[in-house]
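Why does residue order matter? Because the sequence determines the fold. Keep that principle in mind as you read this record.
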Amino acid sequence: MTEGAETKPARVVVADDQTVVREGIVMLLGLLPGVEVVGAAGDGEEAVELVAELAPDVVLMDLRMPRCDGVEATRRIRAEYPGTQVVVLTTFADDESLFPALKAGARGYLTKDAGGDEIVRAVQSVLSGDAGLSPSIQRRLLERLSDPEPPQPAPAEAPDGLTAREVEVLALIADGLTNQEIARELHVSTATVKTHINNLFAKTGIKDRAQAVRYAYAKGLVRPPMGGVT
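Structure:
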């Protein structure tokens, strides 16, 4: 950073679908030096529109939002407006949230228990070319790098556009696991499991778990038990 840039506040857009949370973040940042909130968005689509209109330095991005979620919004912003950095600010710190966001181009990742000073430090870090990661996220990345999980290969041709993770969830449903058990098995939140189930139901036309089991057997995604499926 140049000497002049050090005194110029970072222009920030806040994106969060929860009005109380969004307004609270805006109010908090308004009390802190080094940050100027120039806009606030209620979903990912609006966040992308505000970036196009306002060209902020940084977007503080929630992940779970309607219309366009935070990961997709991050991907679009980094592809279309590379002058704007993204710092994720979310409730979720599981792998299913963290790694897609970083792969989409987020340079920072904080959970919503972060204080105002920590948010400002993350904003300043990404503008300096560094990563703006909370200590807990740094530890999670180090754990993942030191003990990587084996890759989960997708079927050669997953039917109906299912992703590898959706096929994995479907197989666990066929094994009789509940949402909570699937979450523990995959080391993700129950909300993430529900999202995968909703997506695979929508793609396949499945209406309930019984149909999901039949579908999994019919498509050869799991082996039927001895005697077949009734």
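The two ends are 68 Å apart (CA to CA).
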